[in-house]
Amino acid sequence: MQLNIAVFGSGRGSNFQAILSAMKRGEIPGARVHVVLSNNSSAGILDLARTNRIPALHISRKQFASEEEFVENLISILDAHNVNFIVLAGYMKKIPARVIQRFRDSIINIHPALLPEFGGEGMYGARVHEAVIASGETFSGATVHLVDEEYDRGHVVLQKRVSVQPIDTPETLAAKILEIEHEIFPKAIRMFAEGKIVEHDNKVVVT
Ligand code: GRF
């Protein structure tokens, strides 16, 4: 299936950059980024999109009188750009339920730990790595997963591990994991573009 992707992000966009680079190298045939959306008008990810001549839009709940109006506008933007797949690349806001229903099994997120451990509401950024180190785990990693109504609970698509060394700090661990995020996120998108991932009997199946 041709993937017409919307990327949602709130920050610098290094994962988005990794996805674009993989696309430029021809590693994700059948996928194109049609639009980039951010809740944060000064997010680096929007500049990155503009530099690459990809439509970049700031849209946030605060711009609208009601949640309904916000969701209505969000869906219109996705439709106007013919989006059929959503990639959350460091997006710090919850995806509205109507968007999840509309794009069921076609929204993926990257999380900097080995889900289902160290995920859920409030588990983001440095807190994830602090919790991993505090627990004494010897491994952490990155997880690409489908997005459903619950934070970090959707089916796992791809995971890769890194070892946690006694000298690791939340910062060094974050840096190691970011490197593998950049590796597995484009890979996961490629798997979807190749139709290798399907949802069957409530499970993700790699064909
Ligand atoms: C990554 O650590 C990702 O796991 C998390 O947010 C961060 C995004 O970084 N969800 P970037 O904006 O892609 O550089």
Keywords:
24% strand, 207 residues, binds 5-O-phosphono-beta-D-ribofuranosylamine, two-stranded antiparallel sheet, 35% helix, alpha/beta
Protein model, in words:
The protein has helices at 14-24, 44-51, 67-80, 97-102, 126-135, 170-193; strands at 3-8, 31-38, 56-58, 85-88, 107-111, 139-146, 156-163, 197-200, 203-206. It is built from six helices and nine strands; from the N terminus they run E-H-E-H-E-H-E-H-E-H-E-E-H-E-E. It is of the alpha/beta class. The two termini are 14 Å apart. The protein has a seven-stranded mixed sheet with strand order 3-2-1-4-5-6-7, with helices on one face. Strand 8 and strand 9 (203-206) form a beta hairpin. It is globular and about 50 Å long.
Please give the share of residues in helix. 25-40%
Spatially, the strands of the biggest sheet line up as 3-2-1-4-5-6-7
- On the 0 to 100 scale, the average pLDDT is 95
Query: What shape does the CA trace take?
Result: globular
Strand proportion, as a percent range, falls in: 15-25%
Poorly predicted runs of 5 or more residues: none
Strands, total number: 9
Report the major sheet. 7 strands, mixed
Oligomer: single chain
User: Strand pairing plus helix content: what structural class?
Assistant: alpha/beta
* Count of separate DSSP helical elements: 6
What is the ordering of alpha helices and beta strands?
EHEHEHEHEHEEHEE
Q: In angstroms, what separates the terminal alpha carbons?
A: 14 Å
Q: Name the ligand types.
A: 5-O-phosphono-beta-D-ribofuranosylamine
Radius of gyration: 17 Å
